[in-house]
């Protein structure tokens, strides 16, 4: 993905549009003890002391794949590289790494002059100010110093990353952590340990199917709870690589990881039986349509949802309306998504679930006033990259709750751009946080008919 194409759109606008709601109290729904039992059988880490000599000779390639050219030469020569890229900073060491979780410092001893790097291991580098207090920085000390003794010695390399930031919002969970984790670690072929700063157990649990299929080992919690522990690894990647919003670039490092590979990986991790939408709509079954309901969020909800559902049913869809309760169980929910030929939602994080739709399915985004660009950029473009059909239904002023609030002649209605130009905070407060939609069912019907025809259900 490229940077925002829209002229005059600032970085802070981009990220702020992303931050939709704050952590749903996910863990509250789980019996933590029971779940911990799930992890109890994973290979354990070995307690130890003293020094670790072994370098990661057996895993040279996975490190080298993360960079090219001069940097790769530097890695071969010195064993380490600091990578400063567009979306993230990361540090790669093929030499022994000691991570003191208490001070959040990574030590790599060598005879070279001591160098220090400090960064947040979270791939929203472009939006540093926004994640400032949400991601604990890591300091790297490389060179001539006295590293602390090891409390734990590991035989496999580590990928160290944060599960803080905007985790709690599904868009960010997948965009900021899960896809970058896949990009950074897939080619280690599960012989890699994940060390998580700003650790949230519920997050690791929620994405256990994905994480279990990227690493053979128990996730290591590097948050405050484990103060005073020094973990030693034969090599490490600190920080995650990102290729841009909800996307993967096959040509970029480490190479070969495209959106289609990521979707294959999801298919295997979640054990999806169906790949292509054609397998769903064979025979006389009505195609399933998932309507992402934002009821309970009080913004960007469909005020006449019942009427909309009725129209969809009349057209021949079997409509499944998502509820908050349904979404709490990730595994079950993504299987529901996979059973659908069409997913419909008003602009918002729920549309991230398009990742789980079968190939050839249709995403329909309802675009409220003022949010055309964000809609296209965050969900429309990515949908096309996923092998999905993508349709938009742009609402008209009559369909926005803002019309009642401001009247037809107010610039909020007539010229959203002018409001945006006055600053993002106010723009967001109006268009993102205060806008519901009352859909013109007759007009929307045409979009649904188009979806039907894309599915080959109309002659
Ligand atoms: C943890 O870090 C704090 C502050 O840097 C330090 O005072 C304390 O001694 C450290 N604790 C351990 C067990 O190393
Ligand atoms: C993908 O990566 C390559 C190599 O880094 C780069 O030249 C290209 O511009 C990237 N494509 C996109 C769409 O970002
Ligand atoms: C448990 C699980 O989902 N394993 C899968 C992980 O990924 C590999 C390679 O894609 C699959 O073959 C496994 O079935």
What does this structure look like?
This protein has 459 residues and is α/β, with parallel strands linked by helices. The protein has 18 helices and 18 strands. Strand 9 (158-162), helix 6 and strand 10 form a beta-alpha-beta unit. The structure holds 2-acetamido-2-deoxy-beta-D-glucopyranose (NAG) (3 copies).
Could you tell me the radius of gyration in angstroms?
24 Å
- Mean residue pLDDT: 86
Tell me the number of helical segments per DSSP (H or I, 4 or more residues long): 18
Unreliable stretches: 1-60
Q: How would you sum up the major sheet?
A: 7 strands, mixed
Bound molecules: 2-acetamido-2-deoxy-beta-D-glucopyranose
How helical, in percent, are the residues?
Answer: 25-40%
- The total number of structural domains is 2
Percent of residues in beta strands? 15-25%
Q: Which class of secondary structure composition applies to the elements? A: alpha/beta
Shape: globular
């Amino acid at each position: 993905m490229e940077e925002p194409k829209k002229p005059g759109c600032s970085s802070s606008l981009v990220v702020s549009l992303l931050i939709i709601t704050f952590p749903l109290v996910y863990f509250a729904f789980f019996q933590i003890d029971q779940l911990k039992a799930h992890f109890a059988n994973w290979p354990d880490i070995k307690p130890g002391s003293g020094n670790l000599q072994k370098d990661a000779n057996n895993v040279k390639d996975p490190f080298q794949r993360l960079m090219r050219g001069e940097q790769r030469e530097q890695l071969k020569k010195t064993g380490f590289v600091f990578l400063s890229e567009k979306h993230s900073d990361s540090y790669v060491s093929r030499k022994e790494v000691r991570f003191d979780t208490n001070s959040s410092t990574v030590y790599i001893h060598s005879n070279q002059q001591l160098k220090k790097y400090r960064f947040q291991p979270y791939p929203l580098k472009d939006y540093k100010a926004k994640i400032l207090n949400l991601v604990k920085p890591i300091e790297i000390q490389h060179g001539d110093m006295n590293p602390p003794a090891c409390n734990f010695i590991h035989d496999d390399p580590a990928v160290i990353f944060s599960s803080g930031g905007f985790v709690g919002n599904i868009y960010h969970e997948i965009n900021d952590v899960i896809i970058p984790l896949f990009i950074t670690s897939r080619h280690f072929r599960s012989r890699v340990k994940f060390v998580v700063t700003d650790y949230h157990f519920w997050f690791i649990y929620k994405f256990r199917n994905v994480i279990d299929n990227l690493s053979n080992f128990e996730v290591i919690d590097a948050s405050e709870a484990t103060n005073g522990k020094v973990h030693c690894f034969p090599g490490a990647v600190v920080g995650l690589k990102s290729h841009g919003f909800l996307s993967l670039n096959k040509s970029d490092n480490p190479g070969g990881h495209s959106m289609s590979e990521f979707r294959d990986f999801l298919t295997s991790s979640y054990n999806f039986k169906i790949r292509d939408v054609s397998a769903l709509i064979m025979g006389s079954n009505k195609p399933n349509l998932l309507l992402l309901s934002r009821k309970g969020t009080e913004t960007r909800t469909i005020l006449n949802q019942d009427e909309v559902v009725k129209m969809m049913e009349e057209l021949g869809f079997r409509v499944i309306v998502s509820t908050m309760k349904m979404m709490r169980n990730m595994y079950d929910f993504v299987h529901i998504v996979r059973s659908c030929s069409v997913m419909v939602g008003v602009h918002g994080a729920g549309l991230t679930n398009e990742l789980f739709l079968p190939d050839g399915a249709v995403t329909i985004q309802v675009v409220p006033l003022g949010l055309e660009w964000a809609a296209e950029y965050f969900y429309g473009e990515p949908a096309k990259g996923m092998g999905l059909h993508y349709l938009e239904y742009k609402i008209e002023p009559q369909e926005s709750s803002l019309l009642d609030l401001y009247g037809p002649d107010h610039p909020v209605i007539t010229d959203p751009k002018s409001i945006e130009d006055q600053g993002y905070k106010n723009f967001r407060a109006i268009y993102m946080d205060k806008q519901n939609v009352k859909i013109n069912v007759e007009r929307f019907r045409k979009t649904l008919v188009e979806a039907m025809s894309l599915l080959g259900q109309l002659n």
